[in-house]
Amino acid sequence: MVLSSTIAPRSKVTELTDDTKYDSLNLEQKKKAWPMERHRSAEVSQAILSKIGHDGFQLCHQPQIPEIVKGGCTPISSCDPSGEFTADSNGMHRHTITDAAWEALKQSIVYFKGQPIGTLAAIDKSQAELNYDQVFMRDFVPSALAFLMKGEPTIVKNFLVETARLQSREKMVDLFKLGQGVMPASFKVHHSHPTKKTETLLADFGEIAIGRVAPVDSGLWWIFLLRAYTKYTRDSSLAESPHCQRAMRLILKLWLSEGFDTSPALLCADGCSMIDRRMGIYGYPLEIQALFFMALRCALSLLKDSDDDFVYQITKRIKALSYHLHSYYWLDFQRLNDIYRYKTEEYSQTALNKFNVIPESIPDWIFDFMPSRGGYFIGNVSPARMDFRWFCLGNFIAILSCLATGEQAEAILDLVEERWKELIGEMPLKICYPAMENQEWQIVTGCDPKNTRWSYHNGGSWPVLLWLLVAVSVKLGRPHIARDAVELMERRLAKDDFPEYYDGKTGRYIGKQSRKFQTWSVAGYLVAKMLLDDPSNLRAVSLEDDGHIREPVLKRSNSCPALHISH
């Protein structure tokens, strides 16, 4: 079957040629190359298959492999060491949810030349596809972690190898050539000659994306995933291979290039990350800066010793970035009070209000939202502008990467507990808080009908973010937060067919344009369960503290336990 190219004409995408030989595996070989335990949960399998259907997967998959597609696997998280169901009152219910999640994840697997290479963004065939039939870099991360924690690293290795090859292709937007280090936002398998069974990969580097924005976060996630693979498999041969070392160097060259910036943070356009639509995150958004910090630290552990210049540049950048984010992004009660009392128009080296933020621009909601116990990194800082919104991903990555100090990490979770109703609500987890509405929504989003108040990126609730909450809760020894959030999600997630996001101030309603069987909603839940059941899985996603990289002088506020910076 030929894959439809309705998303973009062939001339507008980058095509991967076949650089390596792939042997077509017969059915028995596929079983050996992709070993998975099989369960007998016929009811769950039939429920999933009846909702998804078999025919929808011929576009991106190898011809159907019943043993894999229909088989699934017995989830570790729902069994005791003997392999029996857990005995608690909700044990069977939770086993069924986990069962359904594994089944959906297996259904989303994409094959390229006989090998698993990634997972579809969603397998909901009830709506027009747009680009949900592609493999996205950021979307695949929770899927990859789930496979790694399940002991199935092959698909992750293949993904890393092929995306590194895609990176080397020429990337053009109109008449402009993108930097060599840019990683694709997504790719799809194209069957150009059905009779000859010729397959190629078509990649999108932003030239066909909505808004035509290059994905700044793709390269950051790629290095994070390479480190996770290396850490989990204890196999450094992939990271040390020439193509992976080259891919890292190209990414680092792009990040560390000199320009007009007076800040060590990465300057970004709107819509360049998970929030991939106009949402006022242009400038120096926290999500990108936290991922940047995480990826730089990961790269230090992956680069060969011969890359002394990169190591030196990375170390310098880590120190500068850490100082910058601690000095200007961290917010707690005392820091908010300091900003409220700022003087303006200071012209000197000793200025406290270095970005000339006007105190009257502080939004009213922050004064009620900020508890006396807790704190967080705000969303953005640039001249005369501070975005006080809470962004989930950036704050949790700050904890996992040890960008946040120990006290700051505790303060972030304190904030989550203090503002549980606002940030968790009825369905975890708010991507940002609060939502924009009325004139602010009109001006900032351009009247985006998808990002109306408390929907999608504008204060919507995203199940995929659960794995991050669980990871930081386990890391800080506060698993009760994780369990409460997981139990809350289990009430509805499978029943609602694993939606992409939920709408409403408390996340009560399935999103108005939310896809069902969104793969990263499925995988995020599975990763969360496996992190709770076996905290040693944390090694794949969390870095150890490295105190020498920080140089700011920190002091304790008298009025709250969080830290703030002495300027």
Overview of the structural elements:
By secondary structure, the chain is α+β, with helices and mostly antiparallel strands. 40% of the residues lie in helices and 10% in strands. The chain is built from 20 helices and 18 strands. The strands form 8 sheets. Strands 1-8-7-4 form a 4-stranded antiparallel beta sheet. A two-stranded antiparallel sheet has the order 2-3. Strand 7 and strand 8 form a beta hairpin. Helix 2 packs across helix 4, helix 14 runs parallel beside helix 18 and helix 18 packs parallel to helix 20. The protein is globular. The N and C termini lie far apart (63 Å). The N terminus and C terminus are likely disordered. Invertase that cleaves sucrose into glucose and fructose. It catalyses: Hydrolysis of terminal non-reducing beta-D-fructofuranoside residues in beta-D-fructofuranosides.
Structure, briefly:
With 567 residues, this protein is α+β, with helices and mostly antiparallel strands. The protein is built from 20 helices and 18 strands. This is Alkaline/neutral invertase.
Largest pleated sheet: 4 strands, antiparallel
Tell me roughly what share of residues is in helical segments: 25-40%
Low-confidence stretches: 1-46, 51-89, 551-567
What oligomerization state is this entry in?
Answer: single chain
Radius of gyration: 23 Å
Count of distinct strands: 18
The average pLDDT value, as a whole number, equals 83
Number of helical segments with 4 or more residues: 20
Order of strands across the main sheet: 1-8-7-4
Shape: globular
| Portion in strands | 5-15%
- What's the N-to-C terminus distance? 63 Å
Query: Class by helix and strand content?
Result: alpha+beta
Function: Invertase that cleaves sucrose into glucose and fructose.
GO molecular function, one term: endo-alpha-N-acetylgalactosaminidase activity
Organism: Triticum urartu (Red wild einkorn)
Keywords: Carbohydrate metabolism, Glycosidase, Hydrolase
